[in-house]
């Protein structure tokens, strides 16, 4: 039997996923039951207005432990991370936040017997030797980025804590996440978000990967639902813990531009690949997520056209 989650800390709550996750969790569990942890960046006004906010840098063990004590936290969604692009510019920072920070979270869970830890992994766990299409759950994990190295090590460390110390820690390998609320910071898949902002603002976008670059992507409502459904899944049904493949849609940068042009026909896209092209080329194009479907009932709702319609409606209402 899984113990109930009553008091939740979301780290990285000013980030792309954290900023929306806090609001969805508050809606579900109550405003005062979800504490928005943030490092230096302030979370959005609606997070500040709707419930508790706490400065909590996961690399600072004392700060993390005192936040957990102060609010009697039993569950942590660890969304604080340095992504792949920034991770290549600052590899030691990526290691510190993604590994030492996550280790502090795991130790905190072990010492204080927390109910659950959620820690996302990523398609960045894969590398050029991994089969690129319909990438299996069990496969070669030899990433070439520091971000990917920390994601593989994080999956293994989480699984180790699960088996060795009975810490209930779970996670999914997210594809690129597309969303309208908070822009992503420093990832390789950021172009798939930036193109919407630029299409609406300027009808022009210079894309930092080639037109034929295909990557797996997911719309934010599905990403949030996936993580929360996994958190709530009965423990005895799970055969995997920290490394669930998760898929929704796959398309090229050019396909995405064509889809947006159905709404904004004047959109002009040019392609100027930078260092992130090599990262994109080392990642899979599509993912086999049958373990998530079988073990905890995963099924995404959005495709490229329903996502694009929703993104354009939401961003136009805000930006125009
Ligand atoms: N979106 C992430 C990145 O591009 C992948 O997990 O770094």
List the topology elements.
Layout: E1 8-11, H1 18-29, E2 34-38, H2 45-50, E3 53-55, H3 61-71, E4 75-78, H4 84-89, H5 91-112, E5 116-118, E6 121-122, H6 146-165, E7 169-170, E8 172-174, E9 176-178, H7 191-201, E10 204-207, E11 214-219, H8 220-232, E12 244-245, E13 249-252, H9 253-261, E14 268-271, H10 276-281, H11 290-296, H12 304-319
Parallel strand pairs: 1-2, 1-4, 2-3, 4-5, 5-7, 6-8, 8-12, 9-11, 10-14
Antiparallel strand pairs: 11-13
Helix pairs in contact: 3-5, 5-6, 7-9, 7-12
The structure holds serine.
The site of serine has 11 residues, from loops.
Task: Give the radius of gyration.
Answer: 19 Å
Distance between the termini: 50 Å
Mean pLDDT over all positions: 97
Count of discrete alpha- or pi-helical segments spanning 4 or more residues: 12
CATH superfamily of the largest domain: NAD(P)-binding Rossmann-like Domain
**So what's the CATH class of the largest domain?**
Alpha Beta
Beta fraction: 15-25%
- What strand line-up does the widest sheet have? 3-2-1-4-5-7
Can you give the helix content as a percent range? 40-55%
Brief descriptors of the model:
320 residues; six-stranded parallel sheet; alpha/beta; binds serine; 14 strands; UDP-galactose 4-epimerase, domain 1; 2 domains; Rossmann fold; single chain; three-stranded parallel sheet
